[in-house]
Amino acid sequence: MQTKTESGAIDFNGSGTLSLQLREILENKIRNRELKIGEKFPPQEQLRKIYGVSNHTIEAALAGLIKEGFITRRPRHGTVVINYRPSKQAELKKNSSICVVICTNPLVKETGNPAIDIILTGIERKINESSLLLVYKTLDEGTGPDSRLDFGDKEKDIAGLIVVGNISQKHLSIINRTKIPYALIGDPYERSNTDKEVDVVGNDDFQSAYLAAKHLVGLGHKRIACFSISFKRYFWEIEHLKGYKQALKESNIEFNKNLLIESNSNNTGECHAAMNKFLDKKLHFTGLICLVNINLYFAALKAFSEKNLWVPDNISVVCNQQFPGVASVSIDHKDMGRAAAERIIERLINPQWKPERVIVPFKLIEGGSTKKI
Hints:
This protein is α/β, with parallel strands linked by helices. It has helices at 4-7, 18-31, 44-51, 55-68, 86-95, 116-129, 169-177, 205-218, 235-250, 268-280, 294-306, 333-349, and strands at 71-74, 78-81, 97-104, 133-140, 158-165, 182-185, 199-202, 224-228, 260-262, 287-290, 316-319, 328-330, 357-359, 363-365.
């Protein structure tokens, strides 16, 4: 027979204290996923009205849930669920660390990840909330000391890995040999699928170029150039081109391959030379999308000024890396780091864990680098 506590009601005539009954009710809601990890509890006044108990009873119940590791309470953040199974979380906290593995590769270092520091900030905040330790390792594709993932006598303390950077299949092969659970921020840069048994936090590269082109089209631009390192080497470059083409197609604008500008390097000097070469062709265009990172934007500005072209008077520009005053399509990289930390913690404490692909969406940020025509 189901008790009132199990059904979610407090038995005011029962032998158990009201605070203990309320704690059990709220604990059941967490265990049953009615209250999810990261979700805020209802305000204390709302709980008081729902269960008909005093603020003192609520405080005592929440204190018990905090002690057991179900929830956390922080100023300005409120009361938040942090774990479905606190015994697992408590066990995890005793001597466990999460290691961030930063993958490097000399072949793609020029197109590295300019947002890495912001991503790490998001990871650090989540790991700190969970009272775990955070360590860092660099993993290189070469043959030096950084080409091995060796934790020495500390390996037993590493509960999970968060992998970020220029990830390759070679990196993943090394990581898989450790047998330590991990989550990826981004897919390997080769054109291949990530292991389906791994959590992946990424972004939609198609959406990035698509939103940028749609914004310019919405301002009346029809001759829109697209500036990138390449459009054919890595999967994200291919997706950029697809997004750009799709935005033009939906607006009945014919794709013109002559308006594609490739630098082949992230070096500012080479980007400047590529833009100059394009401008020398004297092709008519009124809009420009700068992909990969902000270097392309500054290189374009320099080339424009040398030919008495100005942003946005002559050319409207949208970047896919946020910069003050510049129209851009951007993502919150802290969200990427936090999401990856949440996924690896979930994997470690939840026996029902299943891998997920978490996509952090791009958002358009308007700025002074575009105007209507």
